[in-house]
Amino acid sequence: MAEIRNYTLNFGPQHPAAHGVLRLILEIDGEVIERADPHIGLLHRGTEKLVESKPYNHSIGYMDRLDYVSMMSNEHAYVMAIETMLELEVPERAQYIRVMFDEITRILNHLMWLGTHALDVGAMSIFLYAFREREKLIDCYEAVSGSRMHATYYRPGGVYRDLPDNMPKYLKTDTRTDKEIEVMNKNRQGSLLDFIEDFVKEFPRHVKQYDDLLTENRIWKQRLVNIGIVSAKRAKQLGFTGPMLRGSGVAWDLRKNQPYAVYDQLEFDIPIGVTGDSYDRYLVRMEEMRQSNKIIGQCVTWLKANPGPVMSDDKKVAPPKRIDMKDDMESLIHHFKLFTEGYSLPEGEVYRAVEHPKGEFGIYLISDGANKPYRVKIRAPGFAHLASMNEMTKGHMLSDVVTIIGTQDIVFGEIDR
Amino acid sequence: MQKLLEQLEEIFDASSIASSYGELTLTVASEDIISTCLKLRDKLAFDTLIDLCGVDYLTYGQSEWVGDASNSGYSRGRSAQGGEDRHQQRFAVVYHLLSVSKNYRIRVKAFVDEAEPIIKSVTNIWTSADWYEREAFDLMGILFENHTDLRRILTDYGFVGHPLRKDFPMIGEVEMRYDEDLGRVVYEKVSIEPNISVPKVIRK
Predict the structure, then answer these.
(1) Chain B neighbors of A369, CB-CB under 8 A
(2) Per-residue CA distances from A83 to A58, A331, A375 (Å)
(3) ipTM score here?
(4) pTM of the prediction?
(5) Is B126 in Cβ contact with A41 (below 8 Å)?
(6) Which of B23, B50, B163 lies at the smallest CB-CB distance from A360?
(7) Which of A105, A134, A339, A355 is exposed most, by the fewest CB atoms within 10 A?
């Protein structure tokens, strides 16, 4: 009889289910995974090295490019680390704007996750529905920052500018009739906040739609239930955070447990799973979208009632008003210094983390008193999650690997940095 | 945090504990890392290793500003917290621990020597240390004793050097291109000049 041997399968880096550039070396016994060895670093851009060579404000844009589906959450951790070291007061309105956009980002991220996860597992249509709503939220990004993805909107001391009074509208094109344009612009007549308010009203209906398509879907359940079970104890050992940890039944959320910005003034719940399988994590993330929607609603109400500054008035950090620079020499000097040399942080070190859509995203910042960081370590949640790939896939079938990559919500921008 | 500080002072030497920006830092000798981590995990319930990284203190506190132009202007007017002189040894390994059950954090710091940058691996205490240690080895060249699989993780296959070290140039050392004649990819010395766009200035 012929000798039976395990064989090795190379999965990726060019594979539609690899969510970017994951290369997996799988050791397979028949169709059962014996060992999975992820090779990462194919998207390594040396962010931590680059950040060391630039003044603080120049690197906010790099943060967007880490986890490129939850841009503003990354920025939040970075500016929070800087603000802590500068002992900078952030105006309350800016805090609310940040929280609102953090939650918009969470929905953006979870919609992306839902779409691609379902697509990998075999449900095509959900992807199209998820991207329909993503489009609206990306328009919100565009309205405040001018950029649809890499916003660079959060700045140390606040946010770049206040929310716009007009939501940009679709223009006439040759391919669309006036009537179609009118329908598309129906919810864009007021300010950005009106637009978001309309979204908040509509969104639960859309989540319901995804829910109807997937939650009780037989194929979906067959592919997800009892796949990649992680116990609460193992989850902590493996450094899991965010929905991955909550899916295993640990009620841990930085927004609740170590609140930052204005999360302690908002009402929301933390969903947790029971068994810690992929299906539980799916349910957790679905509920998180509903909760995020609730938070956005509360922020919109607050922001409508409370106008005010959105940037700290500390001139060493925040750029002066353009109009002041015309006749105030000091403003001109501040502007010049700020945009050439930047500002210096006091000597010391700090670690600040936010509840990023994927888990705990932290920035460990060491300053030696210069205008550039001495060392920045980016704690990416996906890195710890992907590290558990071997443990999570062991004993599962080859097709389950795809489910597990999906449930880990892998994005290579943050893992490879 | 106060409670944690009291508990820490019972177990560790008070002089090794520093507090800044509402965070605690415990500095230990590299030989003691295993015993320290075990105590932290078992006695103080630090169940999660959030992060592990290497730090290179080679150019700490050195400014790139040459000449004395405007070295006095634009002061910061804020005092430093926890910025004592601590770079007698070049490398540090920094552990960020989190206790999910008790809801507190701590930072543990161990310095290692330049000549022998070796420290014991904590993979047996927290499984998540596995990849973090591989990363610290890859980017900083710190070796972790008893790590079962200390391979490079983020850099290219066959990469030479440790890019996050301060003496590694930001532009790298080699560049890659496809050679028509040889019919394969070749590595050559970088052809671009290193350039500092904004000099590093230290304002005390």
Answers:
(1) 61, 80, 83, 202-204
(2) 15, 21, 16
(3) 0.85
(4) 0.88
(5) no
(6) B50
(7) A339
